[in-house]
Amino acid sequence: MTFHRNFRSSPWLRPCCVVGCLWVLVAWIPVIQASPIDPAGSGTGGFAEEVKKASSAIKSSVQNLAGYGTLAGQQGFLARVLISREEAKLLYKTVEQTVHFEDLLLIVLIGWTTVPVLKIPYEKLMMQRPFGDTALFVLADHLQQIAKIATLVYLTDILQLYCVGLGFDFCKMGNVPHAFAQAAYTVWGAQRLAAIKKYLLRRYVSHHPETYGRMQIFNRLLDAAIYAAGILATLNLFKVEMGVAMHSFLAFGSVGTLAVGLASQGITTQILNGLMLASSDRIYEGDSVKFGNGQSGTIVKLGWLETVLRGSDEVMVSIPNTDLLKQQVSNLSRIRYCQVKQTLKIKYKDAEKVPGLLDMIKQEIRAACPFLITDGTRPFRAYWTDFTPESALEIMVDAHFYLKPIGDEYFSNRMQVLQAIDRAVRNQGVTLVEI
């Protein structure tokens, strides 16, 4: 914990660690001189010849030392790994003939120092816009990411070189570094495409806020399409580059297809139902809804398998998408109007005061509620509707407003309606029946 705090707070410890890591990389990790795509190399004897010589020399020497009657000779792996110092030097010299230390150093510097190097002069110029929001940062960040992937590709190439030199035959099968490079850049390209897509959708939503929910669904569907295409492209690359190994993997996948298919029927059904629910435009994340079974709340997450609903008591409920498709859904967030309806019971002795009370109730509601609908498109009523068994008169008040039936604004308006009715009852001297 102490080292962790010092590492974060000290202004010099972090640069020293970076310099130390660079020194280790320069001193101990050789860089392939040849391109990962062209293994011929520019060394004295070529990549293939040097590796073959080193592999044969080391293999024969190790076999002589370990023997086939020993545990190392029986296991094979130990016979290849347990080599002498002279054999290790021979292997290192073979690798050294085909690599350049400068290549890896340059890539590492680009991959880990481009953004800091550009950020320092940018901030020295006292620019008002944060460096992270500039196009220069985006360009430098992408350059760093490409360089980091290139570093991994070079290290994979070196690792294959060492493994082939130790006599591991599986490393000779296909062009492993080439396949790794193409797969890594394919995955990176899919991630960058998804990020650009997300940025464009955010820009669109900032100008059209009403499309937020629809764009969320669109964003999720595009993510699925992009990553599915990336996975298929990566598998195809491995199939082409790795040859027999990938065919064996695919054969194993074919054997297990039936079992996996049977086990995932329920999951597949829920995913399809989630896709149908998303494309149906019924609900979005953030909508306040009410289901046919009486559940109500706010949609917190609209997933592929289930939907998370937050109730008014802050309790989270996960509902399978299959169940949601079978229920009636009232999306309260999309309703533009609301209703406040009340039933009053007054004593029979105040029957002659009813006409004046009804007019007074309407006047008070009009004065207190600016969102009241009075153009005739929605009803605004106050009527004497019935006699009750308790020898009382029943009065119904029904008003509609230009407000959504959710949120503080709705409840504030509802309270104003109740207060207006109370004022009218008091002004007319009418007595309500106690329940």
UniProtKB/TrEMBL annotation:
Coiled coil feature spans: none
First and last residue of the signal peptide: 1-34
Domain of life where this protein originates: Eukaryota
CC annotations in GO: membrane
Keyword annotations of the record: Membrane, Signal, Transmembrane, Transmembrane helix
A Pfam short name: MS_channel_2nd
All residue ranges annotated as the Mechanosensitive ion channel MscS domain in the record: 267-334
One biological process term in Gene Ontology: transmembrane transport
Intracellular or extracellular location(s): Membrane
Transmembrane segments annotated in the record for this chain: none
Membrane topology: Multi-pass membrane protein
Main location: membrane
Family affiliation: Belongs to the MscS (TC 1.A.23) family.
Protein name as it appears in the record: Mechanosensitive ion channel MscS domain-containing protein
Organism: Phaeodactylum tricornutum (strain CCAP 1055/1)
